[in-house]
Amino acid sequence: GGGGGGGNGGLLSAETAQSAVRSLCDVAGLLLEYLENAAEAMKTGTVEEPGGESPGPDPETTLAATRALGAFLAELPDPHAPRVDALLPALLAPPPGCRIEKKNKGGPTDPGIEPATSICVDAAAAALTARFLLPYLLQSTEDPHGLEAFERARGPAALASLVHRVVDDKGKDGETGAGVGVGVDVEEAFGVVTAVCAVLRNAMEGTDRGHAEETLASDACVAFADCAGAMSEWAERVLERDRSTPWRGGGDAEDGIFLRGLAGLRRDGSIVEG
């Protein structure tokens, strides 16, 4: 048997645990290096064009690296935060040929921050990249440096674009559901929507505390107003169609309150009274 040591044989020593964490940090650093090189290749144009022969970062590998890095950052955001923040503009920028739509036509425009060249090849990859980074953004936007990086990356607009895709009624084959955009089920869409709202709230509160410029709060407000109508309609569909979910009968009070609050939003982001 391999369990000796008075019942403690199955426990990792502190030294072993620290060594494992260092190894994971090293792996995360290699993933970051790959993404940094991919971003530089996209910026300089040394990427494969449709039907061309030029070598470039493989889109599937880039997404896999982003997903793995996001999982690491969700648990340990600090070791590589400066490098991640420097890379955020490329990770969150709209892909080539795509513009971040503004559904709220009357809202203010984004500040004149020059958009970066996206590391993503299309809108679907951009949405997945933003989803993978949400846990990191939730933590980094509680810090002044993270708020600055989020603004520089035009993060609010990227998250609004993500919400529009996640709560879209039409799946890949056109089927209708309670929120299956880009292959997302209702519970995952709920998680994305709550995380996006929390990040935008962090941006607004960080500005109120003097940790960020007023332009970030403005961007966050515009982003929320831009997707408020889509979130409201999605919440109404979830509450109406997904009767098996506990929040329908108030089984999960906080989730139910949040969904009903979303369902009461006007398209311009204000709460419907009465």
Structure characterization notes:
- With 274 residues, this protein is mainly α.
- The protein contains nine helices and no strands.
- Helix 1 (14-44) runs antiparallel to helix 2 (59-75), helix 6 (155-166) packs antiparallel against helix 7 (186-208) and helix 7 (186-208) runs antiparallel to helix 8.
- The longest helix has 31 residues, at 14-44.
- 36% of the residues are buried.
- The model is unreliable at 1-7, 50-54, 101-113 and 171-182 (pLDDT under 50).
Summarize the structure.
The protein has 274 residues and is mostly helical.
Give the tags.
274 residues, mainly alpha, 9 helices, 0% strand, disordered N terminus
Count of helical regions: 9
Terminal Cα span: 68 Å
- Rg, Å, rounded: 21 Å
> Approximately what portion of the residues adopt beta-strand conformation?
under 5%
Helix percent reads 55-70%
Would you tell me the structural class of the helices and strands? mainly alpha
**Arithmetic mean pLDDT:** 80
| Main sheet attributes: strand count, strand direction, barrel closure | none
**Low-pLDDT segments, ≥5 res:** 1-7, 50-54, 101-113, 171-182
One letter per element, helices H and strands E, the order comes to HHHHHHHHH
Q: How many beta-strand segments? A: 0
